[in-house]
């Protein structure tokens, strides 16, 4: 009888352990910039929980560290960049990162604390722009589209590629996250929407000009090459590309950020 009870207890332990193991949630670790990336990820946490995954969000105010950490396997994915930036990063750093899904577009905008419209710009005024290759070229494109400058046909442009600058604008090149800080020293600054919002600027109300909605710079979920088809990344993509996320983006950001799926 004692042996039988011990046997039953052993079976109960094994079954209990197996059940506990089966119900354990798998962790997905994603690096993201604060607004709106981390906010969107926070929104999908409950849905991922239902799918058996615990989402851990690591917030960065940097464009290099999350890519390196994803390539090295410290992060399962990251969410902060667009394809032109990713392609340039891979080429420069030798990383093997790929797009898993497009999520949203953050139209780049022109902001100022000194003028109310672009017609007020004066000869020799200073302009703040990001200094990383893709965002710098993108910022110059915004200024081209509003008629302030003309540039050559190079794929990635810097102020050296400006071929017409009737107002003799002077360009201050600085890390993208720091561009909002230039507003005290510039007439205008061209700022990524996530950093503008993080600085308390409203792209819909405060931007003097904003990037066209047909921009190719949709923000994407990025993983190391070969991981895009793993079950947990597929689950994350499904959650991020859901109708509920589309509604969340439209309702929360009211046009400042646009769904890209």
TrEMBL record:
Classification via InterPro entries: Lipoprotein_NlpA
GO CC field: membrane
Keyword Lipoprotein annotated: yes
Location in or out of the cell: Membrane
Record membrane topology: Lipid-anchor
Cross-referenced CDD domains: PBP2_lipoprotein_Tp32
UniProt xrefs under Pfam families: Lipoprotein_9
Principal location listed in the UniProt entry: membrane
Keywords: Lipoprotein, Membrane, Palmitate, Signal
S-diacylglycerol cysteine: lipidated positions: 10
Signal peptide: 1-24
UniProt cross-references to PANTHER family, sorted A to Z: D-METHIONINE-BINDING LIPOPROTEIN METQ, METHIONINE-BINDING LIPOPROTEIN METQ
UniProt record similarity statement: Belongs to the NlpA lipoprotein family.
Protein name: D-methionine-binding lipoprotein MetQ
Native species: Campylobacter hominis (strain ATCC BAA-381 / DSM 21671 / CCUG 45161 / LMG 19568 / NCTC 13146 / CH001A)
């Amino acid at each position: 009888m004692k042996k039988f009870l011990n046997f039953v207890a052993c079976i109960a332990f094994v079954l209990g352990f197996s059940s506990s193991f089966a119900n354990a949630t798998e962790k997905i670790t994603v690096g993201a910039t604060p607004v709106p990336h981390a906010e969107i990820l926070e929104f999908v946490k409950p849905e991922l929980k239902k799918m058996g995954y615990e989402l851990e969000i690591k917030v960065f105010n940097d464009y290099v560290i999350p890519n390196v950490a994803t390539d090295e396997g410290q992060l399962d994915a990251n969410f902060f960049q667009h394809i032109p930036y990713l392609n340039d990063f891979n080429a420069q750093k030798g990383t093997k990162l790929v797009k898993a899904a497009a999520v949203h577009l953050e139209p780049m905008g022109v902001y100022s604390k000194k003028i109310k419209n672009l017609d007020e710009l004066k000869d020799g005024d200073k302009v703040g722009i990001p200094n990383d290759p893709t965002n710098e070229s993108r910022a110059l494109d915004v200024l081209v589209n509003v008629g302030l400058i003309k540039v050559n046909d190079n794929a990635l442009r810097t102020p050296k590629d400006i071929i017409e600058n009737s107002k003799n604008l002077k360009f201050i090149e600085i890390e993208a996250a720091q561009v909002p800080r230039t507003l005290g020293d510039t007439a205008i600054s061209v700022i990524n929407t996530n950093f503008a919002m993080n600085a308390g600027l409203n792209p819909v109300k405060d931007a003097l000009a904003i990037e066209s909605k047909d921009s190719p710079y949709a923000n994407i979920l990025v993983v190391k090459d070969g991981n895009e088809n793993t079950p947990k990344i597929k689950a994350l993509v499904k959650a991020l590309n859901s109708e509920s996320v589309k509604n969340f983006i439209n309702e929360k950001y009211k046009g400042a950020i646009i769904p890209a799926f």
